[in-house]
Amino acid sequence: MFLQNNIVFIGNSVTEHSKSVKHLNKRVINIDSFNDDDLVGENFINPDPCGLVNKDVISILKKLRLNKDDTLIIVSSDYGRDQNYYKLLQSFGKIIGNSYEAILKIQNQKNFTHKLRKNNINFPERFFSKDQIIEPVLIKNTYLSGGLGVKKYKNGYKLNNKDEYFEKFLEGQEYSVLFISNNQKEFKIVGVNKIYNKKTSYTDFCFSGACSNIILNEKQINYLNHMVNFFVHEYSLVGINGIDFIISKDIYFLEINPRITQTCFLYDDKFNNGYVEAHINSILDKNSSLNMSNLTETKFFENLFTKIHFNINVDLNKFSFVSNIPQLNASIKPGEPICTINSKSDNEKKAKNLLLDNISLIKTELKNVEII
C-alpha cells in the first residue's frame, strides 16, 4: 500500500471515491460541490457546480496546512482557466492522475480530431464552423464532462468559445469503457457500461446513470483495445480513465474522460482494496500488476433530478440503496441532482427491475417533488 496518509478528493460528486478508501485508515478530505451526507471523511464545499479546481479549492488547501510529502490529490473534474491550478495544486501534494499537458492536448479538438482520423478511430463527423454542418448535429464542449454543455443544434446558433464544436448526431446505444494503465503503458479493460442520459434545465444530455458488466463480442472488444492503446501511447494516460462510445451501425468514439470517473464504483469489488487504491498504485508503483478479479453481478445506478426548487425534508439514509444523499434541509434547485438510486443482481433484467422498484419507493417518499 502507498505510504501517504492524506487523500484529497476534488470534484462535483466524490462520495463513492471517499467510500472506496474508507477501510484504508487514511485521512480523507473531500472538496465537493454538494457536500452530501454520505461522504466519508472531512468535507468542504466547492462552490463551483462542476467541481472545477479554482481559487476556493486552493484557499481550503492553504488553511488545512497538509504535509505536502504525505498528501495525494485526486481530481475527478477539471481545472479552472483563470490560473494554472494544476501547478498550484502541486504545491500541496502529489497529483494522482494524468499530466496537465496530456489534458490540454486532448482538449485541443482540431488537433485531437486529426489524430483520431490518422489512427483509424471512428467518430461522428465534427464541424468547427456553422457553415460546415450537416444536420442533425449537437453542440459539444471539450472542457465539460457528464453531458454538461451538450445541446441540440438550433438554426442560427453560433459557437460561443474555442471549447465548443459541432458533432453529427447518431442514433444508437451509448456506452463507456473503463480502463486502467500504468507508467509502462500497460493497460487492461476494467469493464463496459451502458450509459443513460436525461434532459435537465442545464443540458439536453445530462449523464444520469449506468449499467455495469456489459458483454460485447470479440470484434467489438478488439476495437475497444485499439482505442485504449491509442490513448495510452499517444497521451501517456495513467490510472483509471473512461472512454464514451456509441454503437450505431459501427462503434463510434464520442469522448475521452482522462480522469477517475463516476462509474468506477461499479467495479470496486474487482480490486483487492478498491478502485481508488488501484488507481493510486497504478501511478505510484512502477511494478503495478493491474490485477483484477472477475465480477458476475450486474449493477445499475440512476441519478434523480428535480424539476422544482425545494428543501429536502426526508432522511434518505434509511434506504440502503440510496447514495449521494443530500443533507436534511439542503436546498436543491431545478435541474440539480437529488440523489442516486442503486441496484444489483445476477443478471441485467433483474437488476433493472429492482432499480425501477427502488426509484418508485423514493418517488413515493418525495411525493410533492417533481422528479426527472
Side by side, the strands of the main sheet go 14-13-10-11-12-15-19-17
Q: What is the helix tally?
A: 8
Helix content: 10-25%
What is the ordering of alpha helices and beta strands? EHEEHEHEHHEEEEEEEHEEHEEEEEH
Determine the mean pLDDT.
93
Outline the fold blueprint.
Elements: E1 6-11, H1 15-20, E2 27-32, E3 42-45, H2 55-64, E4 71-75, H3 85-89, E5 94-95, H4 100-107, H5 109-118, E6 126-127, E7 137-141, E8 151-152, E9 164-168, E10 173-181, E11 187-198, E12 206-211, H6 218-235, E13 239-247, E14 251-257, H7 275-284, E15 298-305, E16 310-311, E17 322-323, E18 331-332, E19 337-345, H8 348-365
Structure description:
The protein has helices at about 15-20, 55-65, 85-90, 100-105, 110-120, 220-235, 275-285, 350-365; strands at about 5-10, 25-30, 40-45, 70-75, 95, 125, 135-140, 150, 165-170, 175-180, 185-200, 205-210, 240-245, 250-255, 300-305, 310, 320-325, 330, 335-345. The protein is an alpha+beta fold and about 375 residues long. An 8-stranded antiparallel β-sheet has the order 14-13-10-11-12-15-19-17. A 5-stranded parallel β-sheet has the order 3-2-1-4-5. Strands 6-9-7-8 form a 4-stranded antiparallel β-sheet, with no helix packed on it. The longest helix has 18 residues, at about 220-235.
